[in-house]
Amino acid sequence: FTAACVFAGSFLRPVGGALADRFGGVRTLSVVYVLAALGLAVASFQQPSPWLALALIMFAMMSLGAGNGAVFQLAPQRFAKEIGVLTGLVGMTGGIGGFYLASSLGWAKQVTGSYQIGLLAFAGLALLALVGLSGVKARWRRTWPELAGQTSGLRL
Predict the structure, then answer these.
(1) CB atoms within 10 A of CB 146
(2) In this structure, what is the dihedral angle of CA atoms 20, 93, 56, 122, given to the nearest 10 degrees?
(3) What is the pTM of this model?
């Protein structure tokens, strides 16, 4: 099950990048955060079969994988001069997040007897990321044309 979730998220990264190229990174991230939160929240409730639970969690991981691709579309637009450091930070954060998700779910199961609180917490984190993204979006849109050298057709 773990391998299925890892592969699902990994294979959707390029799709997320392509969607971000076409529709804008901020818009793509906004959609995938909502989809991930929805998938995680629904998965947190007892499912009638482990296969349905797997499908829901894979859906959430695919959304997060697509979000990773969208982040890599946004990074060079916002941090062109620091792209090496930023891609390292994004990769590091993804690695920590992948470890922390499994660890947190195990802790939630041990403490409460259920994975529900852990899944709901990660759904909440996805929504918190959406709120944070919405908060910086207006400021980014004002400053990015300057950072990009007034490039026309810049998609945020």
Answers:
(1) 8
(2) -110
(3) 0.83
Residues 6+ apart with CB under 8 A from 60: 35, 36, 38, 39, 40, 43
Cα–Cα distance, 9 to 16 (Å, whole number):
10
pLDDT averaged per 10 residues, the chain (length 156): 87 94 93 96 94 95 92 83 85 79 88 93 94 86 59 51
N-terminal to C-terminal alpha carbon distance within the chain: 35
CB of 5 within 8 A of CB of 97?
no
Cα–Cα distance, 46 to 31 (Å, whole number) = 25
- Half-sphere exposure at residue 121, Cβ-oriented, CA atoms within 13 angstroms: 14
